[in-house]
């Protein structure tokens, strides 16, 4: 009998001792969750006839042209003869393997470009589609390529050091 009474006492203590007496923290920035939230509406503005405004076309800004200054050498002698006086090269591809650069050159030939392969001081083979003596001409060609061939939007300029 004592055991049964002791069991009920321990059981009742276990249930009453585990009750949480936590209250919600009161702060001037918190609200009572039991109160209903207020909903505000914004009154509609009066609609007056406004004169039609002619939308001006937004000037299209060109993406900046990446430029690098490197020492380069030509992989073919005939390319060197034709382009050695030029200092600005329009680059469409850069490869660490000469075979990959030559394969890309063939792809560009099929698309109507006249690419040449340059060997950079960094060890990369740069596939160039045009070369110029003046930077303005090279930038114009970059813009033309970006507009006509969106897949070559990452075209950049190499400046011969």
UniProtKB/TrEMBL annotation:
GO molecular function: peptidoglycan binding
Domain SPOR: 82-159
Pfam families, sorted: SPOR
InterPro entries (UniProt xref): SPOR-like_dom (IPR007730), SPOR-like_sf (IPR036680)
Gene3D superfamilies to which the protein is assigned, alphabetical: Sporulation related repeat
Transmembrane domains' residue ranges: none
Protein name: SPOR domain-containing protein
Native source organism of the sequence: Mariniphaga sediminis
